[in-house]
User: Fold this.
Amino acid sequence: MPKVLDQWAMVATAIRHARVVLLCGAPGVGKTFAALNAPGAANGIVALNLSEDTVVQELFGHYVPQGGQFVYRDGPVIVALREGRTLVINELSRASGAVKDALLGALDSMQSAKITLPSGETVTAHDSFRAIITSNESSAELDAALRDRCETVVNLTEPHPELIAALNRAMPQLGDAVRDSYADPDRAISSRAAFAFARLQASGVDVDVAAYLTFAERASDILNTLKLRGAAVR
Assistant:
């Protein structure tokens, strides 16, 4: 397995060269950050956040009333396919089976990525179309057909280095403490929660209150960890 220090370099390479990229890892490691800051998104980015309530029509399009008649309006997936944008699909593991099945056609190979709309039109993927998918599950737990459509897969076990640097700027040693916490996945500190903690501290909120508000039942343990690590906790 590649060294942890090489993971985010591999992500950058995958995003730069592959058509469909899957980023797997715990919440807060920076999967979405990397996807939304992807290099080479010349035609722009279309981002989706999936949940069990997301329906196929919301993503692919549906008929809407306009001027006394119904016209078909493209959803974000079809917009990305037509215009050659980078489609960022967040939280794939939370999507319903129907949504996952519908995505198979859009994520297929360049030669096969075609979607036939209810209007009868068939949309073929633009040459510049690509997709970056994020999932909190490991790639082994994902649907086999979707996994097969991903040209590259990176399983991430450490926060993005730019997030670590930003946390250290917000509070000295905070980013380093968050990074080190990922040595034990069960005790990892979310970078999102750490940013919230730093903001509350910067606003003058009592340290114990700030820790409780951001880390909940783990507040005491995490606060002790940050102090032992040398984070500048006020």
